Amino acid sequence: MGYDSAYKNSSVPNVPILRWVSRLSFLMDEQFRIPGTKYRFGLDPLLNLIPFAGDIVGFAVSGGLVLAMASKGLTSKIVVLMCINILLDTMIGAIPGVGQVWDFFFKSNTRNMRLMEEYYEQGKHRGSGKGTIVLALVILFLIFVVLVSILWVVAAWVISKF
């Protein structure tokens, strides 16, 4: 299954830049297939094998794809959701060991293409992205509080050993 059979029935408008976005998303997330399986992967997990530089290149390509999609009139809500996808992909993908496995399974570009198709096909993800941003910030704050609490407990335990 190549690009054409994967996206030929897509409802994404037949605009040259969006066709380019679809092709590049496919290349980054689904270009290759593991023989004997239906599992596909692209260049993104392969790039992630190169420490630091691979993460930066993957983030830059994904960010460029989001900018290209946003230039075609997507709402702020869908752009925020797409940015969350690429930030998750980049942040977790940067963790040594875990990140390499993560990149084979979390395909942010494919997810973003699906979001764009839902936007055009079903009218989903319309409106302001303010609520999504607030929710993301609250979640990040809670993660920060949990991490600081864990660090505090570990530091107290280490100090008690001296």
Task: Pick out its properties.
162 residues; mainly alpha; 2 domains; two-stranded antiparallel ribbon; 8 helices
Describe the structure.
Keywords: Membrane, Transmembrane, Transmembrane helix. InterPro entries: DUF4112. It holds the Pfam family DUF4112. The chain crosses the membrane at residues 49-71, 78-102, 133-159. This protein is mainly α. It has two domains: 3-127; 129-162. Helix content is 70%, strand content 2%. It is built from eight helices and two strands, in the order H-H-E-E-H-H-H-H-H-H. It has a two-stranded antiparallel sheet with strand order 1-2. Strand 1 (32-33) and strand 2 form a beta hairpin.
Shape, principal axes of CA atoms: globular
Give the DSSP E fraction (strand runs of 2 or more residues).
under 5%
User: If you compute it from the alpha carbons, what radius of gyration comes out, rounded to the nearest whole angstrom?
Assistant: 19 Å
Low-confidence stretches: none
Q: What would the average pLDDT be, to the nearest integer?
A: 84
Widest sheet: strand ordering: 1-2
Instruction: List the helices and strands in order.
Output: HHEEHHHHHH
Please give the largest β-sheet.
2 strands, antiparallel
Number of strands: 2
Number of helices: 8
Tell me the number of structural domains.
Answer: 2
Distance between the termini: 61 Å
- Structural class, judged by helices and strands? mainly alpha
Percent helix, as a range, is over 70%
